[in-house]
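How a chain folds remains the central question behind the approach discussed here. The record that follows shows the chain in one-letter code together with its fold in token form:
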Amino acid sequence: MRVGGILLAAGQSSRIAGGHHKLLAEFDGAPLVRKSAETMLRSGLSSVVVVTGHRSSEIEQVIGDLPLSIVFNEDFLSGMGTSLSCGFRHESLGSCAGALIMLADMPAITEEHIDRLIAAFRALEGRQLVRGASGDQAGHPVVIPAHLFERMTQLKGDEGAKAILQNAGVEIRLVDLGPAALSDVDTVDAIRSAGGSLTT
């Protein structure tokens, strides 16, 4: 039961002052977007697609040597929904039973976290959505079952998967990953608290 990965890396870092890009902040000597991509590649995911947008040429420059696919979302300014749609249209998901969506600004997520989500998804035979959580508080990453892929390609604007999932009536299984499931870095203070440093 193959599970592909989609790394969302198109956002504008709008809450970071000074024109810095959070995905280019350095963590453990590497840009955050590369750290996130390498984490996914070390996991049990069958493939990884990175969706770029804001400052795409710089993002591609720091991950272009990795064994993954990169797609540019021309409508990234419209919101995350367009990036999800773009990722779910990629051909690498064609034979997958599920797709794990990961936000590129979550440095605390490890390959072990991803593998736990994949294992839970497989144990449920791919029939339920599996979502990372901290206790009973839902977070990320999220594994979407294949029967919802077509609906995901229809997302627009800043629309997330929530509306689709509510309408589809899909059961959601939370997997406790601890604080990492909620640890996105949206501000300068959050980046520094997580051990990162802004560069460009």
In short: Residues 111-123 form the longest helix (13 residues).
